[in-house]
Amino acid sequence: MFSIGQLSSKVGVKVPTIRYYENIGLIEPPHRSEGNQRRYEPEVLDRLTFIRHARDLGLSIDAIKDLLILNANPDMPCDEAHLIANQHLKDIARKITQLQQLSLELTRITQNCDSDTVGHCKVLEALGDHSTCKSDH
Question: How does the average pLDDT of the chain come out, rounded?
């Protein structure tokens, strides 16, 4: 059995995050000791490690809920897990494209600014007038 502090330390998740995961049903509410201290079963450590890794990979809470359901049913087909992962990959690819466009636009804006004063700063002008941008970002 683990205290919430021990669980936090072992998994690298802050105590308020663990409480949040309890509130939204990602982990089971803990048993309480005679002193009313939260006491977590070893299985919660594994589940919280799973959640932490999924969050580190950028998966949404809803996707993690679905994956936890799948993980709890080992005889189910793996197709749904693949669908969730592939959808997340598509979202990542879309975000990468957006970030590349932003990078190009910011590079263009900063390279076009050779002013020494804010009054003639092309960066500030571009931020104030979206029509000066070369792409729709």
Answer: 90
